[in-house]
Amino acid sequence: MQDIAERSPEIIIVGSYVQDHVWQADRFPQPGETRRALGFSTGPGGKGFNQAIACVRQLGKALFIGALGNDALAKSARRFAQSEKLACAWLIVDQVPTAAAGIIVNTEGANQIMVNLAANEHLSTEFLRNQSARFASARLLLVQLENNLDAVRSALELAAEHGLLRVLNPAPMHADVDAPLLALCDVITPNETEFGQLMARICGHSIDASDVAASSDEELHRLCRKLGVATIIITLGAAGCFVSHASDSLRGDRSDHYRVGAESVQVVDTTGAGDSFSGALVAMLSRQPEQPFVNAVRHASRVAAMGTEKSGAALAIPRHEDVIARFGPAT
């Protein structure tokens, strides 16, 4: 099922849609404790869909491919995508609901999330293969891990066949992620926790998430090079992000590793910050392919930072003109 046909998308985002139900609280409840919420909201979410919204709000020409149930939440998802002028190819799965999440956000902006991925786990490889002509005309692919892993792998393989730049946001971490899957990727964007999980799973190296940002640049670069991915961006929250390139894949940068600092913002809710980063990154890589990679990273960091100043995920993502008005072009 197609919504707003995009004849020649430059970016394909294969991923999840989740309806977010968000409660604001003074603190997280203890086991068995009932607390009164300070507020409640519901809106569109899901890592893939958030990233697609971030992409189009940064003026990327994207097609989102995902799965929905045959229910009221699916109708809401499609209406919102249409309002954002996001081209979508939806697989409608009968007898399985549209995914939903419960999110609690405390007064410090931290969150706890429980999600039922539902229809997202039924995105078929056949449906993806039916989109082959769209892949043939695109330049970049962005995927995450909220779908069934065979769909993620199929999307990466299809993108490889057509020569797309392949970007993976390895979240939430999947138990079956392995070295062959990473080998299908050109760029990955883990946070500190996901980076530690990848190092343990792929390399047998233990590094605690709390130690990642404090590690030296040389040590982080050395560890990144063990994962076998040409470019790795570790998002570090308030500490910004760290970029590591293979020596033969500098992507226009002057150095094979460096940090980009975080912008100063008033954090309200960190939900979706990593999604904002990944979606904005591919938008800028598509729009400015000749510019140094660091420019896209810096702009993506600004989008993610601004998104934390409002509650919610997709609804909080800033638009390109607002980011430029506040920070100027990334150079």
Question: Would you write up a description of this structure?
Answer:
With 331 residues, this protein is α/β, with parallel strands linked by helices. α1 (47-57) crosses α10 (273-287). The protein has a single domain, classed as 3-Layer(aba) Sandwich (UDP-N-acetylmuramoyl-L-alanine:D-glutamate ligase), CATH 3.40.1190.20. The mean pLDDT is 94. The protein starts with a strand and ends with a helix. The radius of gyration is 19 Å and the shape is globular. The strands form two sheets. A ten-stranded mixed β-sheet has the order 1-6-5-2-9-10-11-12-13-14, sandwiched between helices. Helix content is 34%, strand content 22%. The protein has helices at 47-57, 72-83, 125-129, 132-137, 149-161, 179-183, 192-203, 209-212, 217-224, 273-287, 293-307, 320-327, and strands spanning 2-3, 11-14, 18-24, 39-45, 62-69, 87-93, 99-105, 111-116, 140-143, 165-168, 187-188, 231-235, 241-245, 257-260.
